[in-house]
Write a structure and sequence with these properties.
It is globular, with a radius of gyration of 18 Å. By secondary structure, it is of the alpha+beta class. It has 6 helices and 4 strands. The chain has helices spanning 51-58, 86-92, 114-125, 131-144, 150-155, 163-176, and strands at 7-20, 23-36, 67-76, 79-80. A 4-stranded antiparallel sheet has the order 2-1-3-4. The longest helix has 14 residues, at 131-144. Strand 1 and strand 2 (23-36) form a beta hairpin.
Length: 178
């Protein structure tokens, strides 16, 4: 059993760099922080200060190359994310940690309905769930994020939803996966 005082996220001395024709650009330079269960951390800063690259680094989503994790560790529930292979990362992403991207339309596939994407995400991360149970859970998650007509949202394609609605669908995905 984990101690509630133990961090669920611990970042130590993280350096994420990008190799460019002009040289090495330090996007994240010696960042450290920890977050315990039921804590909230806000990362603020001006444009270009490394907030997005820090967030992408947390889930090992920085495109390599040109990006590279030059130094440091990222531990989620005691697992060093930077040491995991892609298969192990897929088990962590969505099941243990989730991300709601700034551009909500880019995170949803335009060729599938919001409902099919919610259901498939649930089935991927909760394989014991039956398809109909996943649909019920997806519907409940949409209600939880404030949709008054979840059935319409389930049947809608991302282009049929506003940017804010797409962002709430992303939030529903994260919440539905616990």
């Amino acid at each position: 059993m984990t101690d509630p005082a133990d961090p669920v996220l611990e970042v130590r001395n993280l350096r994420t760099v990008f190799v460019t024709p002009a040289g090495v650009a330090k996007a994240v330079d010696d960042v450290s922080f920890s977050v315990r269960r039921n804590e909230i951390l806000a990362i603020i800063g001006e444009s270009g200060s490394g907030k997005t690259v820090t967030a992408l680094s947390l889930m090992k989503l920085v495109q390599t190359p040109p990006g590279r994790y030059a130094e440091g560790t990222i531990e989620i529930d005691g697992r060093n994310i930077l040491a995991l292979d892609e298969k192990a990362l897929q088990d962590v992403r969505g099941r243990v940690v989730g991300m709601i991207f700034q551009n909500p339309r880019a995170s949803l596939d335009p060729s599938f309905t919001a409902g099919s994407q919610l259901v498939e995400t649930l089935l991927r991360h909760q394989p014991a769930l039956a398809r109909e149970a996943a649909r019920t859970k997806a519907r409940a998650a949409l209600i939880e994020v404030g949709f008054g007509d979840p059935d319409r949202v389930l049947a809608s394609y991302p282009h049929q939803l506003s940017g804010g609605m797409c962002q709430r669908v992303g939030l529903a995905m994260v919440l539905a996966c616990n």
